[in-house]
């Protein structure tokens, strides 16, 4: 992000968004190839991963702000709980949705049609 702000002159909100998106894309490529052994990234998996990442941000934001503003929990505690909730969201969405194996619709059909 420092390069985008200092060298390119982008505003910090734009630079932080672009830096976060580059990190999300890099994490997707690494996980897609090295963890789940796909030979090439696929647009459908990328879109699911982007959605899951956005969902994790929303979960964190809602939990953190709900705890701080409504329940009046100290913000360091809310940060830890919000981070845990976002991590759990990411874990479930990534393994059960983003990189899950597609279901074979004809799995029960033994005729080969």
Concise synopsis of the structure shown:
With 113 residues, the chain is mostly helical.
Provide an overview of this structure.
- The chain folds into two domains: 1-39; 42-101.
- Helix 2 crosses helix 3 (43-71) and helix 3 (43-71) runs antiparallel to helix 4.
- The protein has 113 residues and is an all-alpha fold.
- Helices cover 73% and strands 0% of the residues.
- It is flat and about 45 Å long.
- It has four helices and no strands.
Could you name the key traits of this structure?
single chain; 113 residues; 0% strand; flat; disordered C terminus
Tally the helices.
4
The shape, in one word, is flat
Number of strands: 0
Structural class: mainly alpha
Low-pLDDT parts are 109-113
Q: Any idea how many domains?
A: 2
* Percentage beta strand: under 5%
**Biggest sheet: strands, sense, closure?**
none
Determine the mean pLDDT: 89
Q: Helical residue percent?
A: over 70%
CA-CA gap between termini: 54 Å
Q: Which sequence of SSEs, written as H and E, runs from N to C?
A: HHHH
Round the Cα radius of gyration to an integer and report it. 19 Å
Topology:
Elements: H1 2-7, H2 12-35, H3 43-71, H4 75-98
């Amino acid at each position: 992000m420092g390069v985008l702000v200092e060298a390119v002159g982008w505003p910090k909100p734009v630079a932080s968004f672009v830096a976060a998106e580059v990190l999300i894309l890099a994490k997707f490529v690494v996980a897609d190839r090295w963890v789940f052994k796909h030979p090439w990234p696929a647009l459908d998996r990328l879109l699911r991963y982007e959605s899951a990442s956005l969902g994790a941000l929303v979960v964190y934001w809602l939990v953190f702000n709900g705890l701080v503003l409504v329940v009046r929990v100290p913000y360091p505690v809310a940060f830890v709980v919000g981070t845990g909730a976002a991590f759990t969201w990411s874990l479930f969405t990534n393994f059960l949705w983003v990189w899950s194996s597609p279901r074979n619709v004809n799995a029960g059909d033994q005729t080969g049609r």
